[in-house]
Write a structure and sequence with these properties.
Blueprint (H helix, E strand, L loop, with lengths): L5 E6 L2 E6 L10 H16 L5 E6 L3 E3 L4 H11 L3 H17 L5 E5 L2 E3 L1 H8 L2 E5 L3 E3 L13 H9 L1 H10 L3 E2 H6 L6 E2 L2 H16 L3 H14 L4 H16 L2 H12 L9
Helix pairs in contact: 1-3, 3-4, 4-5, 5-6, 9-10
Pfam families: ECH_1
InterPro entries: ClpP/crotonase-like_dom_sf, Enoyl-CoA_hyd/isom_CS, Enoyl-CoA_hydra/iso, Enoyl-CoA_hydra_C
Keywords: Isomerase
């Protein structure tokens, strides 16, 4: 799938979704948001895809909602921003967090507002030293949305997340590394691509269903009590014990050979 705002391509077992509005710093429009949802669903349904990569064309990952479009939306609908969030932003988060395959965001510049939320909603982030996450909602007198409060607080802790969102201050690349949101802040695109390729290859050859279930457990576990978490872990382990990948892992261990995971 290829549109003006989203480019979708498959390279072997990788699906790559590229936000393609570099002149507007990949500001999120209705067509871009729709393209993201459609692209993620296509990746979910493609049996050849084992890992999904999300990145932005140009010098920004995404600066979030296109404010020119928002102004037009307000003129037509009034300030019904909650409806816009429900109809067009929440489906992207659901598509990312419910994707039955691991996800990687490549962040080479600013990820602002809803763009930051997209980067946080992926399983991994590979970044350059120019990357920054900016919860800029407060700068336009709004509160975080698109799962930001949930995802950011879990990633860096309640008080750090609250202070960043109240002040609208950027989380810079070195802090992203220090606080566990990325492994290293790369100085060159070459070293970034090396890390990306290594990570993507590892995930593409791993137990795909187990990856999805691990993410689902982490998303559900924190609001639950201990007993509920114990039962959730029991049910997930039982389901994964019936997968071909688990049987292959046991057979490979007993045979003293590397496992050959197929994602089944």
């Amino acid at each position: 799938m290829e549109t003006d705002d989203i480019v979708w391509e498959r390279q072997g077992s990788r699906a790559i979704l590229r936000m393609n509005r570099p002149a507007a710093l990949n500001a999120l429009t209705a067509s871009l948001r729709q393209g993201l949802v459609e692209g993620l669903r296509r990746a979910a349904d493609d049996p050849e895809v084992r890992v999904v990569i999300l990145r932005g064309e140009g010098r920004a990952f995404s600066v979030g909602q296109d404010l020119k479009e928002m102004q037009s939306y307000y003129q037509e609908h009034g300030p019904q921003l909650g409806q816009l969030v429900e109809d067009e932003y929440i489906p992207i988060v659901h598509a990312l967090r419910g994707l039955p395959k691991p996800t990687i965001a490549v962040v080479e510049g600013a990820a602002v507002g809803g763009g930051m939320a997209l980067a946080l909603a992926t399983d991994f982030r590979v970044i350059t030293n120019r990357a920054q996450l900016v919860p800029g909602f407060v700068n336009v007198a709004l509160a975080p949305d698109t799962g930001t409060t949930f995802l950011l607080a879990r990633a860096i802790g309640y008080h750090r997340a609250l202070n960043l969102c109240l002040l609208g201050e950027p989380l810079r690349a070195n802090d992203m590394v220090s606080w566990g949101l990325a492994k290293i802040a790369h100085e060159s695109s070459e070293s970034l691509e090396d890390e990306l390729n290594t990570l993507a290859d590892k995930l593409a050859h791993g137990p795909t269903r187990a990856y999805a279930e691990i993410r689902r457990m982490f998303d559900r576990a924190q609001p639950l009590g201990l007993q509920d978490v114990l039962m959730l872990e029991r049910d997930v382990q039982d389901a994964l014990a019936h997968t071909q990948d688990h049987r292959e892992a046991v057979d490979a261990f007993l045979a003293k050979r590397p496992p050959n995971f197929t994602g089944a």
